[in-house]
Design goal:
The structure is a single chain. This protein is of the alpha+beta class. The chain has helices at residues 2-6, 28-33, 48-62, 172-176, and strands spanning 12-15, 18-20, 37-41, 66-76, 91-100, 102-107, 128-133, 138-141, 147-150, 154-163. The protein has a seven-stranded antiparallel beta sheet with strand order 2-1-3-4-10-5-8. Strands 7-6-9 form a three-stranded antiparallel beta sheet, with no helix packed on it. It is globular. Mean pLDDT is 84; it is low at 171-190.
Length: 190
């Protein structure tokens, strides 16, 4: 991950709800040493096997969708939050924990229009649960679900997301098997 970012793949750094979107490779090692979250957006565009996984999940579990995204998260966890308590809006997300562990605190879905960033005190109201994702865990995060992630050690994880608004019309099946923007072609039932 770090080699990919240092080699020119776009990345961002998040720590305590502050974002560094410059993608400066000189900041990588220090950010990780301080426990910040380094993430590579749209990483499926440089990892064709990951793109095939995205298409297979969409076809098998979600049906026609649009606006698929991927993020690869690397953290040398220090027990602090990177992005803070937030929700991702109208997207379905699948998380795949590749290495290490992460603790995830989850709340009940919020209503449309709720601000994306939530105050930490919101997790003291209502029903919340905390789970631990270990290596090999595959986790589904429904739309509008508030969550906070904390890593206490090294963690490497993927987040694959799709906008909840389905593609409609006679092209729906074709859209479910759509070509991706890196290589032409499509994937059928695996």
């Amino acid at each position: 991950t770090i080699a990919m970012a240092a080699g020119g793949v776009p990345f961002q750094i998040a720590a305590e709800r502050r974002y560094d979107r410059r993608g400066d490779p000189r900041r990588l090692r220090r950010a990780l040493a301080e426990g910040a979250t380094v993430f590579l957006p749209q990483v499926h565009q440089v990892l064709p096997r990951l793109m095939r996984l995205i298409v297979a999940l969409r076809v098998e579990l979600l049906g026609p969708r649009k606006e698929e995204c991927s993020f690869l998260f690397a953290v040398e966890g220090r027990g602090r939050t990177g992005m803070g308590l937030h929700h991702d809006g109208p997207v379905d997300a699948f998380w795949l924990q590749l290495e290490g562990r992460r603790t995830v605190t989850l709340g009940a879905p919020v209503t449309r229009g709720t601000p994306q960033d939530l105050p930490a005190s919101a997790s003291r109201r209502g029903t919340w649960r905390t789970i631990e994702l270990g290596p090999g865990s595959l986790f589904h995060l429904p739309p509008w679900t508030p969550h906070d992630v904390v890593c206490h050690g090294r963690s490497l994880a993927l987040s694959l997301t799709w906008a909840s608004a389905p593609v409609r019309g006679p092209q729906a099946r074709a859209a479910a098997l759509a070509a991706w923007d890196i290589a032409s072609g499509s994937v059928d039932r695996i």
